[in-house]
């Protein structure tokens, strides 16, 4: 479970970085290119991805039994 959460966090982080890059105009070829709204959406995704990754890697599940 923890590893899966970290992987999902990494995927969200990478997608957010692409969105932010397109929003700033660094990655051309999309309707998102140059639209600052996508920079802010991407930044939010990067923060969410970092949070999910941290939860997945740092917190231990409760012991059962």
List the helices and strands and how they pair.
Layout: H1 2-24, H2 36-58
Question: Could you describe the 3D structure shown?
Answer:
- It is rod-shaped and about 55 Å long.
- The protein has two helices and no strands.
- Helix 1 (2-24) runs antiparallel to helix 2.
- It has helices spanning 2-24, 36-58.
- The protein has 65 residues and is mostly helical.
- The longest helix has 23 residues, at 2-24.
- It has one domain (2-58).
Kindly summarize this structure in a few lines.
The chain is 71% helix and 0% strand. The protein is mainly α and 65 residues long.
Any key phrases for this structure?
65 residues, mainly alpha, 2 helices, rod-shaped
Low-confidence stretches: none
The helix/strand series, from N terminus to C terminus, equals: HH
How many domains, as an integer?
1
Q: Which descriptor suits the 3D outline?
A: rod-shaped
Q: State the helicity in percent bands.
A: over 70%
Helix vs. strand class: mainly alpha
Strand content: under 5%
Number of helices, counting only DSSP H or I runs of 4 residues or more? 2
What radius of gyration results from the CA coordinates?
Answer: 15 Å
């Amino acid at each position: 479970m923890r590893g899966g959460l970290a992987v999902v966090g990494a995927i969200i982080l990478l997608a957010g970085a692409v969105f932010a890059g397109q929003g700033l105009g660094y990655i051309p070829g999309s309707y998102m290119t140059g639209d600052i709204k996508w920079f802010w959406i991407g930044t939010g995704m990067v923060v969410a991805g970092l949070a999910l990754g941290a939860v997945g890697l740092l917190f231990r599940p409760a012991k059962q039994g």
